[in-house]
Predict the structure.
Amino acid sequence: MLMTPMPGTRIFVLDTNVLIHDPTALFRFEEHDVYLPMVVLEELDSAKKGMSEASRNARQASRFIDELMHDMSKDQIDHGLALPSRLSESGKDMGNGSGRLFFQTRSLPYLLPEDLPGNRPDNAILGNTLALLKEHDDVVVTLVSKDINLRIKASVLGIHAEDYYSDRTLSDVDLLFTGVDELPTDFWELHSKDVDSWQENGRTYYRIAGPRVVDWYPNQFLYTPADQGFEAIARETNAQSAVVEIVDDYRSEKNNIWGIVARNREQNFAMNLLMRDDIDFVTILGVAGTGKTLLTLAAGLTQTMETNRYSEIIMTRVTVPLGDDIGFLPGTEEEKMEPWMGALMDNLEVLTQRQDGSQWERAATNDLLRNRIKIRSLNFMRGRTFLNRFVIIDEAQNLTPKQMKAIITRAGPGTKLICLGNVAQIDTPYLTETTSGLTYVVNRFRDWDHSGHVTLLRGERSRLADHASDIL
């Protein structure tokens, strides 16, 4: 029996990699129809074995399909299964939309060129899509795939092909929240008549009303560009006014953190976020050499070793290699993770060299610090709860939104979690700047009173590294 789309709807043919990337993709096409070729079901079956993220997603996609087909007859399947318009967090149906799910239930005519044999999965999907185009010439048929080469071949054959966009947090990474707002030169002229100021516990506060405040977020940094200009953090925000607090100046030697001082405005803002005990979640973005790891480690050591706010530092990262994988690594969990933690060792060396004393004393200090810093693998995070820990997630741009949620929900009472990364250096397949878990949490947490974000702009590693970042 031929599938019969409703008037005005589109047919979306899904590639397997879309469901492996996001199992809920079945429910993301609103009133339009979704079509699954039989080869997609075969590939889901092949991908289901294993403990990887892709295998788990393949199994979840199969479960969703099984729930939709529960107690359905062959005739009902041929007519299309009603798709929910939206899902709850647990995946439960929250109401039916008008879209339907169709399967390939019969052989379709072979319409591919001779140069594209139909025994390859990608070419079989192309053949199915071409057959649907011929049968439903009054309906827009679109192939949705994360595979660039498949989309290229589809376009060559006259098939409308698109990437999967529904998982994008933003349409463009340039729109990503920076955590900083540069105030215009006439800001005080427009807002000075509606300003109240006071001091409390040695800190200076301002209550500002005016047209600009409606665009501010909690813990967003504000500054005027003059050398000795105004630098503050928004503490309370609403539609009418905002309370801002003058930030601490960590560029001064007297306010150094474990011997480290901020070298620019953005680093100073980052140190303010890292040192505040009322901010539980911090995200710091920046290109290589901007000081993300060094600043975070210095703040963590100060609050762990000196003020005892946290019991220990836990550092982890996703183990995605830059080049070819070096294979099996012997040893314990911490020993296996050490090759991935070169940034930790490099920055620890910098921090210990800045301490006073002899070489022997610095070596003893380094051993002491290593005992308070634990290296953990993300593979064993499920089910854990971190109490009073300073948790650092390095290279967080390689995490998916689902992985990011699994890690952040490990935080228990008294824990501070810091995500570091550069969305321009993503090594995980199928993740982009707009779909990265780091982009996802920056966008989702910007309204929360106990989180903060800052993007570091200036490299401070060396003049060679800065020049390489600019010209290469």
Remarks:
- Residues 263-471 form a domain with the Rossmann fold fold (CATH 3.40.50.300).
- The longest strand covers residues 96-103.
